[in-house]
UniProtKB/TrEMBL annotation:
It comes from the Eukaryota. Residues 618-796 form the Protein kinase domain. Keywords: ATP-binding, Cell membrane, Glycoprotein, Kinase, Leucine-rich repeat, Membrane, Nucleotide-binding, Phosphoprotein, Receptor, Repeat, Serine/threonine-protein kinase, Signal, Transferase, Transmembrane, Transmembrane helix. The gene is LOC100842785. This is non-specific serine/threonine protein kinase.
């Protein structure tokens, strides 16, 4: 009976009875019996499949089973008859739909059609197949979750990663109880995780990253006790990480990132002694780092970055000699930086924390595999014996005369001259944990993360275009800097003020041809001065193709002489096209120029003629407000800039020079949550202040005035509250001139077109009883005062 190989199914038994009668006719005897032939019906099926999808290498003049893309069992009828048990058509770039004919191969157990260009749906006929392994990874298949797959109950290994499936994950997935490996990452699935997943108790590998799911990470996943690999990165799920995960003691690879929600304490993973790769990144985990990590003898990769962790790095970490990568970036860790960490030969990134210097702490940013940028607490900022790169916000060490007003970087490539502008070279190859400061000390970059699963010992952090670019300014796009996780560029020692930031992109890794390499989806976020300006940014989609340039332009404000541009991968997009390890931010060039012209923040001087022309001679129709300081008018400058003009009630007791000087100092305070004061006009008996225009007026009107009331949902209200808090924090603790507002109220909170909150009237005193307004330099009682250059106390 061994020759019957029953796994083919009982239906095969009846076909064999008939075929047995014809075996001598079909195959002959004697010498021909030494050369087994494919079962004739299957040969015809393979011919149909080859014709439909374009397989050219199957040779039907001999036995197609000899092909490397096919596996056969030739033990039937005394080793004279073969049946197809496996088909492996990987990276073939087929552009057809999936043929139903695969279901006519009764012994087919393994089918791998990964990394191709198949489109459409999975055929319903496939439900009759007895497959054990099926990979459709990296195609253009679409529609809702293929219900036909839930009826192939023999499946033990299924991958539909990197397609265009959408909708809910059906509860029928619970029918696949023999499943050991399930990969559905990088699709567009929505809704909560179905409880039916808990029925797949044989799972050893579950990956659901890069989807658009909702709801919480479900505790029923803790029932999958055989799990060895679990990946939930960038799927839009909410925390906390369930406590039942502590029961998954067989895990060797756990990756959870970018959870939404308020977060939780550190989960108990102490029993996971097989752990090799642990990623709990940006999960809002708070509290201290557990010491049990030191007992994980197999741990090779630890990423706890961008959480809310506090306390010291545990002493037990010193025992983790086998760990190749440690990422603790972006937390609030304190204490001294451990000496053992500085002596490591492997990669460690502890940047963006709150460490103190200690008696033997580093005073320089190391150039090896340890990244320490912004690793010291704000209290260390006044120390002169440590490099500025260690301090919060990477402060400028230069004197005022050395400030710069522009920046141009050709990211990942050599120097280039474009339209007469020199873009500086940026060719440092490393990036797993590195801080690089350019020779001119006018810019720097910090890169964190290694490309995972690519089996490459030396990652490349610079991409080179595989084809000749014929686009304008091609020298800016031929190469680009990459990062698998976090990449921050700094503009150092910049003049304070308003700037235009231009970010140049071109997708040069994924191709624009008819190959599976065109299916990659790179998605990442961009922050400028801490504010997200791009979310799930897809270069290729925005530029309508790969190899095509696209430039994103933003206005930002430098307040402490440092500009920060941050690129961050939040677990989104594909990670396995063209191969594993292709994902993360990519940037081609950066251009930063000051915003001068009509709104010159350094001069801040306007003529009365300009103001009258802008407001149509203070036309009552342009009046947008009235307050204790006077009337406010909307204006339009000749260059098209909309402004708000505050007409003070009367002239200050101070002279024009003093008034302008003090207004100049206030206008130097630039922050995203402060209303920008562009300047003033002091002609004749006029005292006019020129501000940026705020489209939604003030918070008081948005909340309490019926005809102007805005429907503010809770996320918007939360954003407004955070904006107010950030503005106050800047005035109190971060600005060069420390100011106590003394009149925070809803009418002094203005809202821009995006409903971002900005504080107004900071630095202006209440009207005196005689009707005059002025800026006072008298210290007011015990009210908090602040300092400018350590000499001048201010009170408002």
């Amino acid at each position: 009976m061994g020759a019957w190989r029953l796994p083919c199914g009982w239906r095969l038994l009846f076909s064999m009875c008939f075929i047995g009668l014809l075996a001598e006719v079909v195959h002959g005897a004697g010498a021909d019996a030494l050369h087994p032939r494919l079962f004739p019906a299957e040969a015809r099926t393979l011919r149909r499949i080859a014709a439909k999808i374009g397989v050219a290498h199957w040779n039907f003049s001999v036995n197609p089973c000899d092909s490397e893309s096919m596996k056969c069992d030739c033990s039937f009828y005394n080793n004279t008859t073969c049946h197809v048990t496996g088909i492996f058509l990987k990276e073939m770039n087929f552009t057809s739909q999936l043929p139903p004919d695969f279901a006519d191969l009764p012994c087919l157990l393994q089918l791998d059609l990964s990394r191709s260009l198949f489109h459409g749906a999975v055929p319903d006929k496939w439900a009759q197949m007895r497959l054990q392994g099926l990979s459709l990874m990296g195609n253009r298949l679409s529609g809702t979750f293929p219900m036909v797959l839930t009826r192939i109950t023999t499946l033990t290994n299924l991958s539909i990663e990197g397609n265009e499936f959408h909708g809910l994950i059906p509860h029928e997935i619970g029918h696949l109880t023999q499943m050991e490996k399930l990969i559905i990452s990088a699709n567009e699935f929505t809704g909560p995780l179905p409880a039916a997943l808990s029925l797949l108790t044989n799972l050893t590998d579950l990956r659901i990253s890069g989807n658009n799911l909702s709801g919480k990470v479900r505790d029923f996943l803790g029932k999958l006790r055989k799990l060895e690999k679990l990946q939930i990165e960038g799927s839009l799920l909410e925390g906390p990480i369930p406590s039942d995960f502590s029961k998954l003691t067989n895990l060797s690879d756990l990756r959870i990132s970018d959870l939404r929600g308020s977060g939780s304490a550190f989960p108990d993973l102490s029993a996971m002694q097989s752990m090799k790769t642990l990623v709990l990144r940006n999960c809002s985990i708070s509290g201290s780092i557990p010491s049990y990590f030191g007992d994980m003898k197999n741990l090779k990769h630890l990423d706890l970055s961008f959480n809310k962790l506090t306390g010291k790095i545990p002493d037990s970490f010193a025992k983790m000699g086998s760990v190749d990568y440690i990422y603790l970036t972006g937390n609030s860790l304190t204490g001294n930086i451990p000496e053992w960490l500085l002596r490591r030969n492997n990669i460690a990134d502890i940047s963006f924390n709150n460490f103190t210097m200690g008696s033997s702490g580093p005073t320089q940013c190391l150039q090896g595999g340890i990244n320490l940028v912004e690793s010291y607490s704000p209290e260390m900022i006044s120390l002169n014996n440590i490099n500025p790169c260690l301090k919060k916000n990477f402060p400028c060490a230069a004197s005022n005369g050395q400030y710069r007003s522009s920046l141009h970087i050709n990211c990942g490539d050599k120097e280039a001259i474009v339209n007469g502008v020199k873009y500086e070279t940026d060719t440092v190859p490393k990036g797993a944990s590195v801080l690089y400061v350019n020779p001119g000390s006018n810019w720097a970059f910090s890169s964190t993360g290694n490309f995972m699963d690519n089996n490459i010992n030396d990652d490349s952090y610079i991409a080179t275009s595989t084809s000749k670019l014929t686009i304008p300014s091609s020298q800016l796009y031929a190469r680009a800097r990459l990062s698998p996780l976090s990449l921050t560029y700094y503009g150092l020692c910049m003049h304070n003020g308003s700037y235009t930031v231009k970010l140049h992109f071109a997708e040069i890794v994924f191709t624009n041809d008819s190959t599976y390499c065109s299916l990659g989806k790179r998605k990442f976020n961009v922050f400028i001065q801490g504010k997200m300006v791009l979310e799930d940014f897809d270069i290729e989609q925005s530029a309508a193709g790969s190899g095509k340039p696209i430039m994103k332009t933003f206005t930002t404000y430098v307040t402490n002489h440092t500009l920060e541009i941050h690129f961050y991968w939040a677990g989104r997009g594909t990670t396995g096209i063209p191969y594993r390890g292709f994902y993360g931010p990519l940037i081609s060039a950066i251009s930063v120029v000051p915003n001068l012209g009509a709104l010159d923040l350094q001069i801040g001087s306007f003529t009365l003629r300009q103001i009258k022309a802008a407001t149509r001679n203070f036309d009552p129709a342009n009046k947008i407000g009235e307050g204790g300081f006077g009337s406010v008018y909307k204006g339009l400058l000749s260059d098209g800039t909309i402004i708000a003009v505050k007409q003070l009630s009367s002239k200050s007791k101070q002279g024009n020079r003093e008034f302008v000087n003090e207004i100049g100092m206030i206008s130097a305070l630039q922050h995203p949550n402060l209303v920008r004061l562009y300047g003033c006009c002091t002609e004749g008996n006029q005292l006019l202040l020129v501000y940026e225009y705020m489209e939604h007026n003030c918070l008081a009107r948005a909340l309490f005035v019926e005809q102007y009331r805005l429907r503010l949902d809770w996320p918007t209200r939360h954003k407004i509250c955070l904006g107010i808090a950030r503005g106050i924090a800047y005035l109190h603790e971060e600005s060069a001139i420390r100011i106590v507002h003394r009149d925070i109220k809803a009418s002094n909170i203005l809202l821009d077109k995006d409903l971002d909150a900005k504080i107004s009237d900071f630095g202006l005193a209440k009207l005196n009883e005689d009707g005059h307004t002025h800026i006072s330099t008298k210290v007011a009682g015990t009210m908090l005062v602040s300092y400018m250059r350590g000499e001048l106390s201010w009170s408002w």
